[in-house]
Amino acid sequence: MQPNFFERVYRLVRQIPRGRVASYGQIAALLGHPRAARTVGWALSALHGDEVADVPWQRVINSAGRISISRADLSADLQRALLEEEGVEFDLRGYVDWRRYGWEGLSLPEIEALWQDRT
DNA sequence: GCCCTGACTGCTA
DNA sequence: TTAGCAGCCAGGG
């Protein structure tokens, strides 16, 4: 029995290396649901308390390489600041260069192994 | 069980 | 890496 969708999203996001970024669609695809990008975003928006500090949510941006966040407590400015702190650069228009900072993702075996781990 | 919402995406113009 | 719009999926009420 695999963890529920939310839990899987969190585990996968935690695999994104510091200084790299992934898109919602990419995360969804790795979970086996290429069209569930919105649900991934929703899962991240559901983060609260300690989970926010535990999951590198800031490393997930939209497919255009841009931040698209609209929450009162977690602003786009904060996300950008966190990423810049990790070494990710934004161009003048606020876009991240996928060629430089894009995450390659994990292989299928690596992903399945995540569902086995406990923690 | 139905309906709405959402930190998205791909297609069309 | 436009702008606008419909489609997708999982949770919550």
Helix/strand structural class: mainly alpha
Oligomeric status: single chain
What is the β-strand count? 2
N-to-C CA distance: 15 Å
CATH architecture, please?
Orthogonal Bundle
Helix content: 40-55%
Mean pLDDT figure: 92
Q: How much strand content do the residues show?
A: under 5%
Main β-sheet description: 2 strands, parallel
CATH superfamily, by name, is Winged helix-like DNA-binding domain superfamily/Winged helix DNA-binding domain
Low-confidence stretches: none
What best-fitting shape do the alpha-carbon axes yield?
A: globular
CATH-derived topology: Arc Repressor Mutant, subunit A
Number of discrete domains = 1
**What would you report as the Rg, rounded to the nearest angstrom?**
14 Å
Helical segment count: 7
Order of helices and strands: HEHHHEHHH
**Biggest sheet: strand arrangement:** 1-2
Write a concise keyword list for the protein shown above.
two-stranded parallel sheet; 7 helices; mainly alpha; Arc Repressor Mutant, subunit A; DNA-binding; 3% strand; 119 residues
Write structural notes for this entry.
The protein has a single domain (5-101), classed as Arc Repressor Mutant, subunit A (Orthogonal Bundle), CATH 1.10.10.10. The chain has helices at residues 5-13, 24-30, 37-45, 50-54, 76-85, 98-101, 108-116, and strands at residues 22-23, 60-61. The protein is mainly α. A two-stranded parallel sheet has the order 1-2. The longest helix has 10 residues, at 76-85. The chain is 45% helix and 3% strand. The chain contains seven helices and two strands; from the N terminus they run αβαααβααα. The structure holds a DNA duplex (13 and 13 nucleotides).
